[in-house]
Amino acid sequence: MKTKNKDYEKMVELYELYEQKIYYVAYSILNNIQQAEDIVQETFIILYQNMEKIYSLNTEELKRYILRIAKNKSIDGYRKNKRHEMFLDEYQKESPEVADENIEEWEQRSICEVQIDTLLTELNDSYRQIFKYKVFYNLTYQEISKIMGITEVNARKQFERARKRVQNIIGGIENDEFKELQKYV
C-alpha cells in the first residue's frame, strides 16, 4: 500500500514539475493544442508504467528521460499527421474509383502495421523505437541517433540486434502480412 501511495506522490510531483515543459515540447512540434495535450497524457502513462526506472534516475537524467519520451511521442504524432495529409491530398486528386481502391489498400496496410506493432512488442522499448524509425520512417542512423540521444554507432548496433530478433521471431511464420517486413530483416 505504501508503494502505491509513494508512486502516486511521485507522479503528482512529476506532473507539477514537467507538465508544462512536456506540453511546450509537444506543441512546438505538433502546433495543435489537443494533440499536445494527448502527448502530455501519453507521456505520463509511459512514466507510470516505468516507475522503477524513474526512481533510479537522478534529477537531470529524469528530466532528459521525460522530455525524450515527449519528443519521440510528438515526432510520431507529427509523422502520423503528415501521412494523413498526404493520403488526403492524394485522395482528393484521384477519381472516385481509384480512390476507393486506394482506401482498401490503405486499410490493408494499416492492418498490417497493427500486426507488425504486435510483433514488435517482443522487443524492448529502445530496439522497438529504432526498428520503427528505420523501417517505417526510413530515417538514417544519424537522424535516429539525434532523436534518441545516442551515438550513431549505438543506433546502428541496436537496429541490427532488433532486426535479428525480429528475424528469429518471424522466421517460421508463413503469413503474407510479414513478407513485406521480411525484406527489411
Automatic annotation (TrEMBL):
Pfam families: Sigma70_r2 (PF04542), Sigma70_r4_2 (PF08281). The keyword Transcription regulation applies. Residues 14-83 form the RNA polymerase sigma-70 region domain. It comes from the Bacteria. Residues 115-165 form the RNA polymerase sigma factor 70 region 4 type domain. One of its GO terms (molecular function) is sigma factor activity. One of its GO terms (biological process) is DNA-templated transcription initiation. InterPro entries: RNA_pol_sigma-70-like (IPR039425), RNA_pol_sigma-70_dom (IPR014284), RNA_pol_sigma70_r2 (IPR007627), RNA_pol_sigma70_r4_t2 (IPR013249), RNA_pol_sigma_r2 (IPR013325), RNA_pol_sigma_r3/r4-like (IPR013324), WH-like_DNA-bd_sf (IPR036388). Keywords: Sigma factor, Transcription, Transcription regulation. Gene3D superfamilies: 1.10.1740.10, Winged helix-like DNA-binding domain superfamily/Winged helix DNA-binding domain. NCBIfam families: PRK12542.1 (NF009194), sigma70-ECF (TIGR02937). PANTHER family: RNA POLYMERASE ECF-TYPE SIGMA FACTO, RNA POLYMERASE SIGMA FACTOR SIGV. Belongs to the sigma-70 factor family. ECF subfamily. This is RNA polymerase sigma factor. It comes from Lysinibacillus pakistanensis.
